[in-house]
Task: inverse folding
């Protein structure tokens, strides 16, 4: 299947378009330490892509979830200006626009944070599915299912670009073709993998020509 043959391009946000994974991990570690909670062998990869409250619950924490979620979000908000798009991201978006492709964001991030970055880089998209639009986080299928339903998209004509295991599972449950980027650990679990987003852009540009 040629990458250029799809109509709808559904992008995860954190770790896919934006280099925010390190800030998110620091925010979780900061919050856990502040609340004197020790998680043996804490691995951000396991909770990557989840809504903040769901991430804490997945760590088997039951108390002060709302409080910790606010603290984590506050730390992230104070560092959001440090975030940048991955190399090739903006060119990829412009290439898709030029060829009249539809672009959507499907993320567990808050809509406010997503719109902040989109505005900062003057990126236009056709729709956004954020944490506020769903009850369940990825890997639950709800995020992608909501996007398909809300914008009347055909799954067979849609492609998901993801960097996390939870995200690719969510997309595959909706029978969406998945491109993996920026995370070698998901290489064998996606339909096609690119080490960098820039490489995906280069391949797509060749096919469109």
Result:
């Amino acid at each position: 299947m040629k990458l250029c043959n799809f109509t709808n391009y559904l992008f995860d946000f954190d770790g896919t378009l934006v280099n925010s994974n390190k800030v998110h991990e620091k925010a979780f570690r900061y919050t856990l330490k502040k609340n004197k909670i020790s998680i043996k062998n804490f691995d951000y990869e396991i909770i990557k892509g989840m809504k903040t409250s769901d991430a804490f619950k997945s760590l088997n924490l039951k108390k002060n979830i709302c409080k910790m979620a606010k603290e984590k979000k506050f730390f992230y908000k104070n560092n959001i200006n440090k975030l940048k798009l991955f190399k090739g991201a903006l060119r990829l978006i412009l290439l898709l626009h030029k060829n009249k492709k539809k672009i959507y964001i499907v993320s567990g991030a808050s809509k406010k944070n997503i719109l902040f970055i989109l505005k900062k880089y003057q990126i236009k998209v056709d729709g956004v599915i954020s944490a506020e639009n769903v009850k369940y986080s990825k890997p639950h299928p709800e995020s992608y299912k909501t996007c398909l339903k809300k914008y009347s998209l055909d799954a067979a004509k849609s492609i998901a670009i993801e960097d996390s295991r939870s995200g690719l599972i969510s997309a595959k449950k909706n029978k969406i073709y998945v491109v993996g980027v920026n995370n070698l650990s998901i290489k064998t679990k996606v339909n096609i993998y690119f080490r960098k987003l820039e490489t995906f852009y280069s391949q797509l540009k060749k096919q469109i020509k």
Notes: The mean pLDDT is 93. The first strand starts at residue 8 and ends at 11. The two ends are 16 Å apart (CA to CA).
